[in-house]
Protein backbone atom coordinates (compact mmCIF):
# COMPACT_ATOMS: atom_id res chain seq x y z
CA UNK A 1 0.00 0.00 0.00
CA UNK A 2 1.26 3.46 -0.87
CA UNK A 3 0.75 6.18 1.67
CA UNK A 4 0.52 9.81 0.66
CA UNK A 5 2.60 12.46 2.37
CA UNK A 6 -0.52 13.59 4.23
CA UNK A 7 -1.25 10.04 5.44
CA UNK A 8 2.29 9.74 6.76
CA UNK A 9 2.01 13.06 8.52
CA UNK A 10 -1.37 12.11 10.01
CA UNK A 11 0.33 9.06 11.58
CA UNK A 12 3.15 11.27 12.77
CA UNK A 13 0.71 13.73 14.33
CA UNK A 14 -1.24 10.93 16.02
CA UNK A 15 1.97 9.75 17.70
CA UNK A 16 2.87 13.31 18.70
CA UNK A 17 -0.56 13.76 20.26
CA UNK A 18 -0.32 10.53 22.24
CA UNK A 19 3.13 11.47 23.52
CA UNK A 20 2.41 15.11 24.25
CA UNK A 21 1.58 16.26 27.75
CA UNK A 22 0.24 19.69 26.94
CA UNK A 23 -1.27 20.11 23.50
CA UNK A 24 -3.33 23.15 22.52
CA UNK A 25 -5.10 24.16 19.32
CA UNK A 26 -5.16 27.43 17.46
CA UNK A 27 -7.95 27.72 14.91
CA UNK A 28 -8.89 30.20 12.22
CA UNK A 29 -11.55 30.72 9.58
CA UNK A 30 -10.52 27.56 7.70
CA UNK A 31 -12.02 25.20 10.24
CA UNK A 32 -15.48 26.74 9.76
CA UNK A 33 -15.49 26.78 5.96
CA UNK A 34 -17.11 23.33 5.79
CA UNK A 35 -19.90 24.65 8.02
CA UNK A 36 -20.68 27.29 5.42
CA UNK A 37 -19.23 30.35 7.14
CA UNK A 38 -18.32 32.77 4.35
CA UNK A 39 -14.82 34.21 4.25
CA UNK A 40 -14.23 37.88 4.90
CA UNK A 41 -11.18 38.64 2.84
CA UNK A 42 -10.47 37.94 -0.78
CA UNK A 43 -12.37 38.36 -4.00
CA UNK A 44 -15.70 36.86 -2.95
CA UNK A 45 -15.26 37.75 0.71
CA UNK A 46 -17.82 39.62 2.77
CA UNK A 47 -15.84 42.87 2.57
CA UNK A 48 -16.06 42.90 -1.20
CA UNK A 49 -19.85 43.24 -0.82
CA UNK A 50 -20.22 45.32 2.35
CA UNK A 51 -18.62 48.51 3.60
CA UNK A 52 -16.27 47.54 6.47
CA UNK A 53 -17.09 50.92 8.02
CA UNK A 54 -20.18 49.33 9.61
CA UNK A 55 -17.78 47.70 12.05
CA UNK A 56 -16.07 50.94 13.04
CA UNK A 57 -16.90 51.50 16.68
CA UNK A 58 -17.69 55.21 16.48
CA UNK A 59 -19.78 54.71 13.37
CA UNK A 60 -21.76 51.96 15.07
CA UNK A 61 -22.61 54.17 18.02
CA UNK A 62 -23.49 57.20 15.88
CA UNK A 63 -25.42 55.31 13.14
CA UNK A 64 -26.77 52.24 14.92
CA UNK A 65 -29.78 51.66 12.65
CA UNK A 66 -27.81 51.64 9.43
CA UNK A 67 -24.88 49.65 10.82
CA UNK A 68 -27.13 47.11 12.51
CA UNK A 69 -29.06 46.45 9.29
CA UNK A 70 -25.88 45.12 7.67
CA UNK A 71 -24.29 43.59 10.76
CA UNK A 72 -27.48 41.61 11.30
CA UNK A 73 -27.43 40.41 7.70
CA UNK A 74 -23.78 39.35 7.76
CA UNK A 75 -23.36 37.91 11.23
CA UNK A 76 -26.84 36.79 12.23
CA UNK A 77 -29.23 36.17 9.30
CA UNK A 78 -26.55 34.50 7.15
CA UNK A 79 -25.31 32.31 9.96
CA UNK A 80 -28.62 30.98 11.15
CA UNK A 81 -28.73 27.22 11.27
CA UNK A 82 -24.96 26.93 10.83
CA UNK A 83 -23.69 23.80 12.54
CA UNK A 84 -20.25 22.53 13.60
CA UNK A 85 -18.53 20.21 11.12
CA UNK A 86 -16.47 17.04 11.55
CA UNK A 87 -13.38 19.15 12.30
CA UNK A 88 -14.98 20.77 15.35
CA UNK A 89 -16.28 17.42 16.58
CA UNK A 90 -12.87 15.79 16.13
CA UNK A 91 -11.28 18.40 18.39
CA UNK A 92 -14.00 17.77 20.97
CA UNK A 93 -13.17 14.07 20.80
CA UNK A 94 -9.46 14.74 21.26
CA UNK A 95 -10.33 16.75 24.36
CA UNK A 96 -12.45 13.89 25.70
CA UNK A 97 -9.55 11.50 25.09
CA UNK A 98 -7.41 13.78 27.22
CA UNK A 99 -5.07 14.63 24.32
CA UNK A 100 -6.03 18.25 23.77
CA UNK A 101 -6.35 20.97 26.37
CA UNK A 102 -7.35 24.49 25.45
CA UNK A 103 -8.65 25.71 22.10
CA UNK A 104 -7.80 29.23 21.00
CA UNK A 105 -9.82 30.52 18.12
CA UNK A 106 -9.98 33.58 15.94
CA UNK A 107 -13.53 32.69 14.96
CA UNK A 108 -16.59 34.35 16.44
CA UNK A 109 -19.04 31.68 15.28
CA UNK A 110 -19.41 29.73 18.54
CA UNK A 111 -19.03 26.43 16.66
CA UNK A 112 -16.35 24.97 18.93
CA UNK A 113 -18.62 25.33 21.93
CA UNK A 114 -21.59 24.08 19.95
CA UNK A 115 -19.67 20.90 19.12
CA UNK A 116 -19.15 20.30 22.83
CA UNK A 117 -15.57 21.55 23.18
CA UNK A 118 -14.51 22.96 26.55
CA UNK A 119 -11.94 25.62 27.41
CA UNK A 120 -12.49 27.63 24.24
CA UNK A 121 -10.82 31.04 24.22
CA UNK A 122 -12.02 33.54 21.63
CA UNK A 123 -9.46 36.12 20.52
CA UNK A 124 -12.04 38.13 18.64
CA UNK A 125 -15.07 37.63 20.85
CA UNK A 126 -18.34 36.01 19.86
CA UNK A 127 -21.59 36.68 18.03
CA UNK A 128 -23.35 34.85 20.83
CA UNK A 129 -23.23 37.70 23.35
CA UNK A 130 -23.93 41.42 23.43
CA UNK A 131 -22.51 44.06 25.74
CA UNK A 132 -24.09 47.22 27.13
CA UNK A 133 -21.51 49.95 27.63
CA UNK A 134 -23.91 51.74 29.97
CA UNK A 135 -24.67 48.89 32.39
CA UNK A 136 -21.34 47.21 31.61
CA UNK A 137 -23.22 43.92 31.45
CA UNK A 138 -23.03 41.07 28.97
CA UNK A 139 -26.19 39.49 27.63
CA UNK A 140 -26.80 36.21 25.85
CA UNK A 141 -28.15 36.57 22.33
CA UNK A 142 -31.38 35.00 23.60
CA UNK A 143 -32.09 38.11 25.67
CA UNK A 144 -31.78 40.45 22.68
CA UNK A 145 -34.42 41.26 20.09
CA UNK A 146 -32.46 41.06 16.84
CA UNK A 147 -35.43 42.26 14.79
CA UNK A 148 -35.53 45.62 16.59
CA UNK A 149 -34.29 48.74 14.72
CA UNK A 150 -31.04 48.11 16.59
CA UNK A 151 -30.24 45.75 19.46
CA UNK A 152 -31.19 47.18 22.84
CA UNK A 153 -30.17 46.48 26.41
CA UNK A 154 -32.85 44.43 28.24
CA UNK A 155 -32.18 46.49 31.38
CA UNK A 156 -31.61 50.09 30.28
CA UNK A 157 -32.70 50.04 26.59
CA UNK A 158 -29.41 51.56 25.43
CA UNK A 159 -27.80 50.34 22.21
CA UNK A 160 -25.85 47.14 22.84
CA UNK A 161 -22.91 45.96 20.78
CA UNK A 162 -22.20 42.41 19.60
CA UNK A 163 -19.42 41.09 21.82
CA UNK A 164 -16.93 40.61 19.03
CA UNK A 165 -14.07 42.86 18.10
CA UNK A 166 -14.88 45.83 15.91
CA UNK A 167 -12.16 47.38 13.79
CA UNK A 168 -10.91 50.01 16.20
CA UNK A 169 -11.10 47.75 19.23
CA UNK A 170 -8.29 45.97 20.98
CA UNK A 171 -8.27 42.25 21.60
CA UNK A 172 -9.39 41.16 25.05
CA UNK A 173 -6.22 41.45 27.12
CA UNK A 174 -7.16 38.58 29.41
CA UNK A 175 -7.44 36.14 26.52
CA UNK A 176 -4.08 37.25 25.13
CA UNK A 177 -2.38 36.83 28.50
CA UNK A 178 -3.77 33.35 29.01
CA UNK A 179 -2.95 32.40 25.42
CA UNK A 180 0.68 33.46 25.49
CA UNK A 181 1.45 31.99 28.89
CA UNK A 182 -0.29 28.78 27.84
CA UNK A 183 1.69 28.73 24.60
CA UNK A 184 4.96 28.91 26.52
CA UNK A 185 3.98 25.79 28.43
CA UNK A 186 2.60 23.81 25.49
CA UNK A 187 4.71 21.03 23.97
CA UNK A 188 2.50 20.83 20.87
CA UNK A 189 0.21 23.24 19.06
CA UNK A 190 -2.14 22.37 16.21
CA UNK A 191 -2.58 25.29 13.85
CA UNK A 192 -5.81 24.68 11.97
CA UNK A 193 -7.27 26.67 9.09
CA UNK A 194 -5.23 29.67 9.93
CA UNK A 195 -2.92 31.61 7.62
CA UNK A 196 -1.17 33.47 10.42
CA UNK A 197 -1.85 36.96 9.13
CA UNK A 198 -3.92 38.44 11.92
CA UNK A 199 -1.80 39.95 14.69
CA UNK A 200 -1.29 39.65 17.60
CA UNK A 201 -3.05 36.27 17.96
CA UNK A 202 -0.84 34.92 15.16
CA UNK A 203 2.13 35.03 17.56
CA UNK A 204 0.89 31.99 19.48
CA UNK A 205 2.69 29.32 17.44
CA UNK A 206 5.90 31.37 17.70
CA UNK A 207 5.68 31.30 21.50
CA UNK A 208 5.25 27.53 21.42
CA UNK A 209 8.19 27.10 19.05
CA UNK A 210 10.50 29.42 20.99
CA UNK A 211 9.72 27.57 24.21
CA UNK A 212 10.76 24.28 22.67
CA UNK A 213 7.32 23.01 21.65
CA UNK A 214 6.31 21.64 18.29
CA UNK A 215 4.04 23.33 15.75
CA UNK A 216 1.95 21.23 13.35
CA UNK A 217 -0.24 22.79 10.67
CA UNK A 218 -3.47 21.55 9.18
CA UNK A 219 -3.78 24.03 6.35
CA UNK A 220 -4.68 23.47 2.68
CA UNK A 221 -2.37 26.32 1.64
CA UNK A 222 1.09 27.19 2.96
CA UNK A 223 0.93 29.84 5.66
CA UNK A 224 3.35 32.24 7.30
CA UNK A 225 4.36 29.35 9.58
CA UNK A 226 5.15 26.89 6.80
CA UNK A 227 8.75 25.86 6.32
CA UNK A 228 10.11 27.77 9.30
CA UNK A 229 7.85 27.63 12.34
CA UNK A 230 5.89 24.45 11.73
CA UNK A 231 7.48 20.99 11.71
CA UNK A 232 5.14 19.88 8.95
CA UNK A 233 1.88 20.77 7.25
CA UNK A 234 -1.00 18.46 6.44
CA UNK A 235 -2.67 19.85 3.34
CA UNK A 236 -6.00 18.01 3.36
CA UNK A 237 -9.22 19.72 4.40
CA UNK A 238 -9.30 20.21 8.14
CA UNK A 239 -12.54 18.29 8.69
CA UNK A 240 -11.15 15.21 6.87
CA UNK A 241 -7.68 15.46 8.35
CA UNK A 242 -8.88 15.83 11.93
CA UNK A 243 -11.24 12.87 11.59
CA UNK A 244 -8.35 10.77 10.26
CA UNK A 245 -6.12 11.92 13.11
CA UNK A 246 -8.71 10.81 15.69
CA UNK A 247 -9.03 7.42 13.97
CA UNK A 248 -5.25 7.04 13.80
CA UNK A 249 -4.96 7.78 17.52
CA UNK A 250 -7.59 5.14 18.29
CA UNK A 251 -5.82 2.55 16.15
CA UNK A 252 -2.46 3.21 17.76
CA UNK A 253 -3.99 2.93 21.21
CA UNK A 254 -5.74 -0.31 20.33
CA UNK A 255 -2.45 -1.76 19.10
CA UNK A 256 -0.77 -0.62 22.32
CA UNK A 257 -3.51 -2.27 24.38
CA UNK A 258 -3.04 -5.56 22.57
CA UNK A 259 0.62 -5.70 23.54
ZN1 LIG B 1 -27.79 48.59 29.66
Keywords:
259 residues; alpha/beta; Rossmann fold; SIR2/SIRT2 'Small Domain'; 6-stranded parallel β-sheet; 9 strands; 35% helix; elongated; binds zinc ion
Report a brief summary of the structure:
The protein is an alpha/beta fold and 259 residues long.
Q: Tell me the CATH topology of the largest domain.
A: Rossmann fold
CATH architecture field of the largest domain: 3-Layer(aba) Sandwich
Q: Runs with pLDDT <50, length 5+?
A: none
Q: In what range is the share of β-strand residues?
A: 15-25%
What coarse outline follows from CA principal-axis ratios? elongated
CATH superfamily of the largest domain: TPP-binding domain
* Spatial strand sequence of the major β-sheet: 3-2-1-7-8-9
Average predicted local confidence, pLDDT: 94
- Domain count: the total is 2
Largest sheet: 6 strands, parallel
Secondary structure tally: strands: 9
Helix content: 25-40%
Order of helices and strands: HEHHHEHEEEEHEHEEH
The count of helical stretches stands at 8
Structural class: alpha/beta
Catalogue the ligands.
Answer: zinc ion
CA-based gyration radius: 20 Å
Separation of termini? 24 Å
**Main CATH class of the largest domain:** Alpha Beta
Describe the model.
The chain has about 260 residues and is an alpha/beta fold. It folds into two domains: about 1-35 and about 85-125 and about 175-259, 3-Layer(aba) Sandwich (Rossmann fold), CATH 3.40.50.1220; about 45-80 and about 125-165, SIR2/SIRT2 'Small Domain' (2-Layer Sandwich). Helices cover about 35% and strands about 15% of the residues. The protein is built from eight helices and nine strands. The protein has helices at about 5-20, 55-60, 65-75, 85-95, 110-115, 175-185, 205-210, 240-259, and strands at about 25, 105, 120, 125-130, 135-140, 160-165, 190, 215-220, 230-235. The strands form two sheets. A six-stranded parallel β-sheet has the order 3-2-1-7-8-9, with helices on both faces. A three-stranded antiparallel β-sheet has the order 5-4-6, with no helix packed on it. Helix 7 (about 205-210) links the parallel strand 7 (about 190) and strand 8 (about 215-220). Helix 1 (about 5-20) crosses helix 8 (about 240-259), helix 4 packs parallel to helix 8 and helix 6 packs parallel to helix 7 (about 205-210). The radius of gyration is 20 Å and the shape is elongated. The two termini are about 25 Å apart. Zinc ion binds near residues 134 and 135.
Amino acid sequence: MIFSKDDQNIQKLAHLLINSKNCIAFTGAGISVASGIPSFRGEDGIWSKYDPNILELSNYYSNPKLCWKFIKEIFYDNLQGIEPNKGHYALTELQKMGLLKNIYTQNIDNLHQKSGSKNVYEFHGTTNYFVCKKCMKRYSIKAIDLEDEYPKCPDCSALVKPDFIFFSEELPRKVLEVAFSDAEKADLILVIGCSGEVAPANQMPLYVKHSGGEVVEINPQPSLYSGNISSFRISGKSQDTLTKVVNAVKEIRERQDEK
